[in-house]
Known about the structure:
Blueprint: H1 5-19, E1 32-37, H2 52-67, E2 71-73, H3 83-92, H4 96-105, E3 107-108, E4 114-115, H5 118-124, H6 140-154, E5 156-159, E6 164-167, H7 168-178, E7 185-186, H8 196-201, H9 204-212, E8 217-227, E9 232-234, E10 239-240, E11 243-244, E12 252-261, H10 267-273, H11 281-291, E13 293-303, E14 309-314, E15 325-328, H12 335-338, H13 341-356, H14 359-364, E16 372-379, E17 386-391, E18 403-406, H15 412-420, H16 462-476, E19 479-485, E20 490-491, E21 504-507, E22 510-513, E23 546-548, E24 553-555, E25 565-567, H17 576-579, H18 582-585, H19 598-604, E26 607-612, H20 620-633, E27 643-648, E28 652-662, E29 667-669, E30 679-684, H21 697-703, E31 711-713, E32 722-726, H22 738-744, H23 747-756, E33 764-765, H24 771-785, E34 786-787, E35 790-791, H25 800-818, H26 822-838, H27 844-854, H28 859-868, E36 892-899, E37 902-910, H29 915-924, H30 926-932, E38 939-943, E39 947-951
This protein binds one RNA strand of 85 nucleotides through helix 11, strand 14, strand 18, helix 15 and strand 33.
Amino acid sequence: MKYHHEKIEAKWQQYWAENQTFAASNHSEKPKYYVLDMFPYPSGAGLHVGHPLGYIASDIVARYKRHQGFNVLHPQGYDSFGLPAEQYAIQTGQHPADTTRMNIEGGVDKSGNTIQGYRNQLDRIGFSFDWSREVRTSNPDYYKHTQWIFIQLFESWYNKNSDKAESICTLIQEFDKNGNANVNAVCDDNISPFSSEDWKSFSSEEQQKILLHYRLTYLAETEVNWCAALGTVLANDEIVNGVSERGGHPVVRKKMTQWSMRISAYAERLLQGLNEIDWSESIKESQRNWIGKSVGAMVSFNVNNHDAKIDVFTTRPDTIFGVTFMTLAPEHELVTQITTPEQKAAVEAYVEATAKRSERERMADVKTISGVFTGAYAEHPFTKEPIPVWIGDYVLAGYGTGAVMAVPCGDERDYAFANFFKGTNGMPAIKNIFNQDISEAAYGEKGGFELVNSDFLNGLDYKSGTKKIIEELEKIGAGNAKVNYRLRDAVFSRQRYWGEPFPVYYVNGLPQMIDKKHLPIVLPEVEKYLPTEDGQPPLGNATVWAWDTESNAVVSNDLIDNTKVFPLELNTMPGWAGSSWYWMRYMDAHNTEEFANEEAIKYWESVDLYIGGSEHATGHLLYSRFWNKFLKDRGYAPTEEPFKKLINQGMILGMSAIVYRVSGTNKYVSKNLKSEYETEEIRIDVNLVNASDEIDLDKLRNWIPEFKEAEFITESGKYFVGREIEKMSKRWYNVVNPDDICEEYGADTLRLYEMFLGPLEQSKPWNTAGITGVAGFLKKLWRLYFDDNGSVIVNDEPTAEMYKSLHKTIKKVTEDIENFSFNTSVSQFMICVNELQQLKCNHRAILEPLAILVSPYAPHIAEELWSALGYEGSIATVAFPKFEAKYLVESEKEYPVSFNGKMRFTIKLPLDLTAAQIEEIVMADERTQAQLQGRTPNKVIIVPGKIINLVG
RNA sequence: GCGGGUAUGGUGAAAUUGGUAGACACGCCAGACUUAGGAUCUGGUGCCGCAAGGUGUGAAGGUUCGAGUCCUUUUACCCGCACCA
């Protein structure tokens, strides 16, 4: 009987689907285990072999845990809102909902292209997903709950005293009772104090405006990253090197009224939580960088002749007597106010010039020093000396307060700035407050100095100086200790169509939440997916997009009267909204009332193992932690952290194949002859090349017309390609489709090969050529159970060697799965099968456990072997074999014998010999005598069971 | 600049507390069988050398009887952050 993967795999995939083999129950006696993959965005291009890598790894763990007796939740779904579907809609006029559905379910698109569909592609690989819990973030029955969470955020504030989010009702009660004097909240700056009486006297509108300053999601005019090409704002994590992550378009700062998420309230908890979770150090470090905690002080400087103060954040308050000048960001709000008439023209010109430069230019150009004196002076809080105030674009508006106290003697940038403008109007000589030489460079260290010229700080160091100065600042009311975070509140509005609509309408420009019982607010139909002519977001094109407060329904815009019918929000939510809570939805995916039932959430608790790409380090993974913490505060999530353990799979790279065209001809020269010609490199379809890098020239001629008539300069009839390792992409013709691999070699081979390629977390190139190794392994495995006539399994007692081979494998595979070292498991399977083949093993007592061992990796063949062993039903929950050390006990060891650390020969000795006995035998050995040539060793090192080393 | 990671044959990679470097595969070489196939099987394959032997884990030092593994210095590449006050 031959191994036919196509029959076996189709059969078992159908069996699993029909029998709901992998449907998880929310009630079980077994311990639970939750394995989650980062759900995919269903793009039209379909999956390539890089995509399933993490899914295969998580599937192995899920299947292994089932064998270990766990109730396993291993769900899958789609992150189906997003930009590409919308861009495609703009180009083709097809509704994003239609193209998204087709990308998931497959079909034939309007241009006649067959789309396989993610689901069909995934099914062919034999994942043990519980598809009954599938979610799609763009489905109204899903985003209904995303809208609900948004409302919860709106109805919450962050109480620093309890250090958690609370219902906005508790804040209103406090305002009613005591005004805002005792409120310790994370909120907007510049909130004026009010009493209980004031609060009660405010109009409802005024009250609403005040509350917006406290809510965890709030509407505010903020500086946002505006991307004109995409027609939308972007969050900080959607910008890479000053241009949009998607498309690489320029991004400028712009003031807009937008929804924001007060993630800054959670900065410290997001930072501290990293210590409790088992994530890679690099991701944790990325998040720490992104949060950017720095400890220091806030210091206020009064501006002379103005009723104004400049607040600065500094990590070095101990250097306050070294302040030589101050610098404001050009965007700083005080700039126009304090600039003197004489400096006005210069300052305005500088501000304008800075505004014109894109973020990118400003970032690229860090070497050029520029700035202008405002003519104004601030007053030193202690010495009362006047300090000139400058503006300069080395100070960023977005960090701290957008202003710095410049201490050139202790800061490289201040030093460079001071020297650049040395001698010009408003730039005094550098004050040195360190007992160090600063004639060549600033002294930036936090140690190794004593403060001088610093009044009451003289003689102190960094630590004691900082402590002292903060006390003194507090005494005179000019400052206090302060922890600053780089993490900014996250902009939550997008000027896009294909996203969650906000459950929000506007009365007199003030946002009102729609009651949760009327959710979902379903995305309206529009004629065009582009912004409107007057610059409104795409939802501005909707004609039925108004909220009727009487019928509680979305009605035609014509009915807007601003008394009963009001306009709805035109922005939509960003891509990360739906993915920031989806792991909880899987726990109870069909709940129509709540986002998930309390009991289900309590049962599944949090994700035990999360596998996905590291590109989400500061986006999805940070926002998800934020929402989870918020939901925990409000009693909806059971744990502080959503993902206990995280593994980042590496990227699978393409191995492009290159042919060399002789310049100006239609001739192509084989790789090793190319130096004899002047050539240019052309990439060809990597699937036309065999394991020896040789092209099938007939196939190449039929591939694209360019090669039809081409001539090939070969090496004895063979044409070899060059190779280049680069990202898997259509434009390099190096994409390998998992469907093709499943077709030719089978899903089990694909799964094994993806694991065999190397360590999961490492990025590595794909080369289909190597797959014959694992394909051959599966055939050999099969032949242990079958010959040409069928089953060969016998019930005889296996030999000790067979047991040894099996138990070595049990041990290795168990350890490997626990350590996520899947590549070495596959090697061990090969070793075991090679050994059993040598031993002609066809014994049930060996082959039965072997089938179970293999099953997490190659589930289809394992099921088939299991039924060949005479069992009914699936192998999926059969207990995993247990390692027994007794089968590995050895009585002899092949000792390496080294002389001065160099291994010369080996000698087989019983393991129960003492060191002295070993020495005697070794010394008597003629090979030892030959090595020593009459010398006597100074020292003989014998580690029983390990090595023998003779020195001297 | 700061932080994290990687470096081993022609290729992908193995190597428990420091203990026979290169397991397992791909490729290559030789052979067997054959219904001639991109099947299967056997043997070989780090490098130099006919061999004995020498040499070898990015580089240079060090610790040790013994280092891919530990320590110091250094180079290259990848990732994250970055005029962060």
